[in-house]
Amino acid sequence: MTAPKYRELADMLVARFAHAPVGSSTPSERQLAEETGVSRMTARRAIDELVREGLLTREVGRGTFVARPAVSVPLQLTSFTEDMRARGYAPSSRLLHLGGIPATEQVAAVLRIPVGAEVVLLSRLRLADGMPMAIERSHLRADLFPGLDRYDFGSESLYRVLTEEYGVRFEAGEQVIRAGIVRDADADTLSIPHGDPVLELVRTSVSRGSVVEWTTSTYPASRFELSARIAPVTVQGSVPRSALRVRD
Ligand code: GLP
Predict the structure, then answer these.
(1) I want to staple 113 with a disulfide (CB 3.0 to 4.6 A). Which of 1, 117, 230, 246 is the partner?
(2) What's the predicted TM-score (pTM) here?
(3) Helix (H), strand (E) at residue 247
(4) What are the 10-residue block averages of pLDDT along the chain, 248 residues in total?
C-alpha cells in the first residue's frame, strides 16, 4: 500500500527542514500547493499532520515555523549527562554555587540527618549543545562526601563523581514532578520570560540504605516532556508505587 498523498508531502517537508534552524519559516499552504501541484486541501493536511507531530508550529497571522523539539526526560535513575548524551546533545554545566550550609529542618528530614548538620549545596545551570535546559540544586550529605569542592562541576557529572570517587551505588530513588511558575532569577538564568511555566523534578536517591541526594531540577515547560515506562500490575492486589498526590 502506498502512503496517502498528504503523508508523502509531509515526509518531503520533514526531509527538507530536517537541518533547518528552529524558527525558520516554512511554505504556506498556497505556496506548497503551487510548488508541488497538489490541492490546497492536501497541502493543509500535510502541514496539519506535522503541527500535530510537533515538528512545525503555526502562529496565527504569521505562518508556520520549524518547532523547537521537545526533549524527553525519562523517569529513571539516570543522570542529566546520560539523558542528554542519549539524545545526541553535548551536556555541559555552569556552576552557580558549591559550598557547605547547615541543614534546615526540611533538608534534615529528607536526608535523615540532624538539623544544622553540614550539607553541600551544589547549584548548576545545565546546558545541552550550549542551550540552557535546567537549573539543578542538589543537597548532598557532607559527612558522606568530604572534599566535593575539589571537583569542577562546570564539566563533571555529579553521578560519575559519586559512583566512581565515593563508591555510591544507586539502588532506589523517588521523583516527584510538579508544575510551577519560574522564579524571576531562574528565568534570567534560563533565558526564558518571567512568569513562564516550569516543571520541577524533585529527586531523592538512595545508596546503601542512605538518602544521598535531594535535587530539585527546574525545567522550562516549553522545552520538556516526561516519559515513563508503564507496565501492567502483575501481582494481584498490589498498588502501583507512583501516585498523583495533592500538593499541600
Ligand atoms: C538528573 C537528576 C538529578 C541528578 C543529576 C545528576 O538531572 N534529576 O537528581 O543530580 O541528574 O547529573 P550529572 O551526573 O550529569 O551531574
Answers:
(1) 117
(2) 0.70
(3) none
(4) 84 82 87 94 92 81 81 73 88 96 95 96 95 95 94 95 94 88 94 91 92 95 76 57 57
